[in-house]
Amino acid sequence: MKFAAVDVRQAASAADIVYEALRRAIIEGDLAEGENLRQEEIAQMFNVSRIPVREALSRLEQHGLITTQRYKGAVVAGLSIEEIEEIFQFRALIEAEVMRLAVPNLDRATLERAQAYRDAFDRETDPHRWGEINRMFHYSLYEASHRPYYLQNVRASLDRIDRYLRAQLSFTDGVPRAGREHEAILAACEKGDAALASLLTRDHILDAGRSLVTFLRGQRG
Amino acid sequence: MKFAAVDVRQAASAADIVYEALRRAIIEGDLAEGENLRQEEIAQMFNVSRIPVREALSRLEQHGLITTQRYKGAVVAGLSIEEIEEIFQFRALIEAEVMRLAVPNLDRATLERAQAYRDAFDRETDPHRWGEINRMFHYSLYEASHRPYYLQNVRASLDRIDRYLRAQLSFTDGVPRAGREHEAILAACEKGDAALASLLTRDHILDAGRSLVTFLRGQRG
DNA sequence: CATAGAAATATTGGATCCAATATACAATCC
DNA sequence: GGATTGTATATTGGATCCAATATTTCTATG
Questions:
Q1: What is the ipTM of this complex?
Q2: CATH class of B81-220
Q3: Burial, B213: exposed, middle or buried (Cβ in 10 Å; 0-12, 13-18, 19+)?
Q4: Which CATH architecture has domain A14-76?
Q5: Most buried among A24, A35, A132, B102, using CB within 10 Å?
């Protein structure tokens, strides 16, 4: 187990730090699906007692990232193909709507920020950074929707499937294809065409979902 | 503070029991918006230590039902009018989709169960039971969508605004209107018209949202 | 040697105690 | 009398200890 550095600026408590570190480790795939998470082990890694660890695990369970069983411990949750398909459908629905709501509020600075992320995504060669940059690209546009509750749900649903997306991006032509789709979405945004940007976002997500599912079917047999 | 009995069948731990009891108290409005929740006080009510209470509060915070501040404690979260509007929009979006996905799977037994809930809703005079029965009516149809992730999100978003809906149902013509709309939704379901059922569900939720917002504007000034 | 039962170990959930700090209130000074 | 400072209290977050039980290991027996 390895953990990334955590942004402690708004992590008031030890439980927050542990939660955020575990969350990142799970969504980035550093903790394998089905891997056992023992409270004592994690506590020693972070130099804290088991109390804040338990709080962090409890939160992760609420978000569906792990499952726990008394006396047996927690394991990183895996998703069935059906669950993955459902989450992609869900994302397509709400992110298309968020995009539609965002377009009228997009200003020059936001578009330029999104362009920068798109370029960074195309240039990036490290698979471990694709997910993060992809998120930043989409979030930078989504934020203009001024819909915090939607965005919270976008984040939660993305958290659940990010690990799988990463695998798919690494092993298929997902990156160049996503790059082209980002390009088209951004063009629609620049034209101020909310309906088109929304539709392209929906297709972008459904495409990635289909590609991932066929990839996983091959992998899982 | 009063708490309803908790279904302990799947509440393995004390933390689960406290969580479920507090959740219900909040969504049913028994705990007033802004009310202070002190760990020690809750612990004594449930005859447990503060540890499981803290875990329960942590989960509630993750779901947005309370907010906590170190050394100051937790308070029941209130929603601004804007936040309420956003959650209704969100519900309209996803519940309309769930309804659309459910209609092809509706069988006779399910429709009869939904009819029973619709009738019970119309007959019910206790405002405290409207919310629960309304939920049962909608859930009984939604479940046919076989989309657990969607349903989880339906539940989470409904949890956030149920307390306000309750007030609106009590003080406006919300109940008879909702009754008529339930009737129409059910008719569309019986005809197997997914598009119509979806549209009516969307309008049903947006109507309730608009009605609630005007009610709250009058109340809050 | 394989298997069944018993003891040892591992692991979680909860209780009690300690540390840190925000708030309330009283004492003091102008 | 009002403002300011200091202390006492309230309250949370975390550490340590205890209880309960699942898992593993060891031993005895056929």
A1: 0.90
A2: mainly alpha
A3: middle
A4: Orthogonal Bundle (1.10)
A5: B102
